[in-house]
Amino acid sequence: MLRTAALTLSLSAGLASCQYPATGPTARVKNGTLLGVHSDAYDQDFFLGIPYAQPPVGSLRYRAPASLNQSWHDAKPATQNSAECYGYGSDQWNYPVSEDCLYLNIVRPSGYENASLPVAFWIHGGGFNQGGGVDQRYNTSFMIQNAVKIGKPIVTVNINYRLSAWGFLSGSEELKDTGALNLGLRDQRLALQWVQENIAAFGGDPSQVTIYGESAGAASVGYHLTAYNGRDDKLFRAAIMQSGGPINFGPQLDPLGNADMYNELTRRTNCANQTSPLECLRALPAEQLNTAINTTSATLNVTNFMPIIDGDFVQKRGSIQLAAGDFVHVPIVDGANSDEGTAFSPSPVNSTADFEMFVSLSQEGGLPANFTQAILAAYPDDLSVNVVASLGNQRPGPPFGAQFRRSASYFGDVAFIAPRRKTCETWAANGLDAYCYRFNVIPAGIPAAIGATHFQEVAFVFNNVQGVGYIPAAVPPFENKTQSYRDLAHFMNSNWISFVHDLDPNAWRESGAWNGTEEMWPKYTLNQPMDYVFDANVSSYAEPDTYRKQGMQLINDNALSVYSR
Description:
The protein is α/β, with parallel strands linked by helices.
């Protein structure tokens, strides 16, 4: 294990407090030369805080991101992380935030500057209202270290994009008419275009980009797969989606669907009665606008600003586009966690009456009464139907309730697992490679009643066995866990790397770097729909993707008519 001091220097990227020599790794991009920093501890080159767009401030606030329009003659330092974008939640606690935030980080293994390596392009999650590419839980140094070890070297890119009401404000004709909708997605798209123009300078191959993300990041990947009605702009050749995808986890609204929130924001900022409320919002000091956004009320909540159907970037609901084949036809990895719903189910759920109430009210305007009854029948109070794996007390007491597991099964399926299944089926039906999975591990610090819940696969995907970035907000995932947990992290990370490198998660096993007994990860087919189960307590294995079939079929058959997605 590496010494803590080396880990802190190399991984936390606390570079502002360190002095770096005037020489280091360089990359000549379109606008000039960037000067990075070399990590002796990891034998990697870091290029941090690289601008990929003009700062979205002043007159550029609430506009589509603008490409860089300046060049520089001297080497521009790229040795410090940027601030995260304004966001609202625990993901922002340990990092500075700013409106000037459209930056990305690139990490490469040293000695590969003249290579053409595959590229992994990470889009962070956080509900579209928090998070950032500089979050150290997404640090890629362990991944790149392992990639070299297994003979599959890659280059990684992590990005920031605008969040919440800064990046996903909607509800006004003025926003629609000026192309100012879904700005966070447009930020991501411009970053992908920047990579196409510049990644070769870092030893990356622009024709071998894989986009990957978790939760809102996975949903973002889905939006890029369906962007512009599925137009293939050749920005990526593959995609990985962890708990999210092209079928949204909630209803997709039209451009004026959030008019009440927009009106509340303009009222709070005294912009409502201006000739152009949008121009008024642009002219506000960032701190004043941030305060107005961050004052929660029944009408305006920072968590409710999401991508919407804008008729341009997002032209139709995801279920419509998948049914029509209107998506970029590339190989995918797509999966979810066994107990996604424990992070989203209301509680306590003590009775069928409680469950019925929560289901019927789970969507604005309520679900149709007959459909609610169909859901109750498809999700009975029967643990043999609703639980994939045995995870501690299956009928937990307060604050969860005796039927919490029943409720969590439904809410996890409706938000993540059923759309994941539909996506895998759609890819298979179109003759495309899809590798689908279920993550079935409870990391340290997660109660047994919560199980293998949302986000918990992230540390394994990044091979972050030292728990970098988790303290103080959370317990390091591998603390006091057996070696099998660390082995699984290496195994999962190697599968992800192999898919980025070869479009096949199994290919790394041919390199001699694997001596395990795990089954091979099969492609998903309609005749044999199989998930790969990642488990730290037994060897990972393939299983039929048929659990909770009735409930998920009901959800997927009504994705448009009931769930508006």
